[in-house]
Amino acid sequence: MKKIAVTGGSGRAGTYVVKELLARGYDLINIDVNPPTQDRQAWLCPFRQCDTTQYGQVFAALYGFDAVVHLAADPRPDRDHYAGAQRFHNNTLSAFNVFNAAAALGLERVVWASSETVYGFPFDVVIPDYAPIDEQHRYSPRSSYALSKMLAEQMTAQFNQWSGIPFIGLQFSNIIMPEDYAVFPSFWNDPKQRIFDLWSYVDCRDAAQAVALSLTAELSGAENFIIAADETVMTRPSADLMAEYFPTTHLRAGLGTYQSLMSSEKAKALLGYLPQYHWRDQVGATV
Ligand SMILES: NC(=O)c1ccc[n+]([C@@H]2O[C@H](COP(=O)([O-])OP(=O)(O)OC[C@H]3O[C@@H](n4cnc5c(N)ncnc54)[C@H](O)[C@@H]3O)[C@@H](O)[C@H]2O)c1
How far is CA 84 from CA 123, 124, 125, 144, 224, in A? Predict the structure, then answer.
C-alpha cells in the first residue's frame, strides 16, 4: 500500500497527517474543497480540489489510489439548527461518498476521522455511565456533528460486510495544535472550560501517528478507536474532578492520578498507538 488519498488534507489535523505520511514514505494526494494555506503546509503534496459531497468528484479523485484517509468534514459545533442541518448534510454525505467510492474501486483500506462526541458532548449535559470511557460506553450524540459521525460508523459496519475492506474509525479527542498549548494554564482554575469532553485532548502529531498506524495495523473489520492523550488537560487529579462534577459516574478501578477520562487502551492494544506529546512538556509546567 503506497498511494494514499487524504481528504481534508488542507485542514488542521490534515496538515499533520500529510506531514506524517510523507515522512513515512507514502505517495499522497490532498483532496479538499479548499487548497492548503501557506501558513499550514503550502504544497507539500499534490492537491486536487474536490467537494466530497459530490459523488462523481470523489470517485474520480480516489481512482488509482490504494487507500483513503478521510478527514474532510465540518467539525464546528452547531451554531443553530440551520448550521446543524448543513453540517449533517456535508459530513454524512461526504462519508457515504468516500466509503462507497472506496468499495466500488476496491481500495485496500479506509481510515477515517470519527469523534469522541459520539459518546456525549458536552459532558455537563450528558452524564457518563463510567469513566474512563471506552468503546463499550453507550452512545449519546447530542449534535448534528456527533450524529453524522455515529451514522458514518454504522455505515462502515455495512460497507465492511459487503466489500470486505477494513474500515478504521478514529474517535479523536479534541485535537490540539502546538500553538494551542499556550491557553492550557487558563483551564486549571476553571474546570468548566474543558468539562465538555471530560478534560481530554490529543496532540495533532499523535492524531497523525494514529492515522499512520491504522494504515498498517492487522485489522479486517470495521473498528472504532478512541484516540486521546494519556492525561487530562488539568492539574487536579482526575478522581477529584469526577467526584466534584460527576459524583454519580462510576470510576473504573486503577485510575491514575492525572489519567485521561477517555481511554485509548483499545488503540494501544490493536494499533500500537502510544501518545508521544504531553502538555506538561509542551507548556513547560512543573505541576
Ligand atoms: N479538531 C478536532 O478537535 C476534532 C476532534 C475529533 C474529530 N475531528 C475530525 O477530524 C477531521 C479533521 O478535523 P480538523 O480539525 O482538521 O478540521 P478542519 O476544519 O481544520 O479541516 C477539515 C477539512 O475538510 C475540508 N472539507 C470540509 N468539507 C468538505 C467537502 N465537502 N469537500 C472537501 N473538503 C471538505 C475543509 O476544507 C478542511 O480543509 C474531521 O473529520 C473532524 O470531524 C476533529
Answer: 19, 20, 18, 5, 24
Copy the grid coordinates of residue 117: 462526541
Residues in contact with ligand 1 (CB, 6 Å cut-off): 8, 10-14, 32-34, 50-53, 71-75, 90, 94, 113, 115, 172, 174-175
DSSP SS3 for 48: strand
CATH architecture for residues 3-125+134-179+200-230+262-283: 3-Layer(aba) Sandwich (3.40)
Distances (CA, A) of 276 to 51, 105, 126, 197: 33, 35, 30, 21
Backbone angles phi, psi at 42, to 5 degrees: 50, -125
Which amino acid, 138?
Answer: R
Backbone φ and ψ of 148, nearest 5° = -65, -35
**Cα angle, residue 94 at apex, residues 88 and 98 outer, rounded to 5°:** 150
Ligand 1 center to 32 CA (angstroms)? 10
Cell of 107: 481500495
pLDDT average per 10 residues of sequence, the chain (287 residues): 96 95 97 83 85 98 98 88 93 98 98 97 94 98 95 98 97 96 95 96 98 98 98 98 98 97 98 96 67
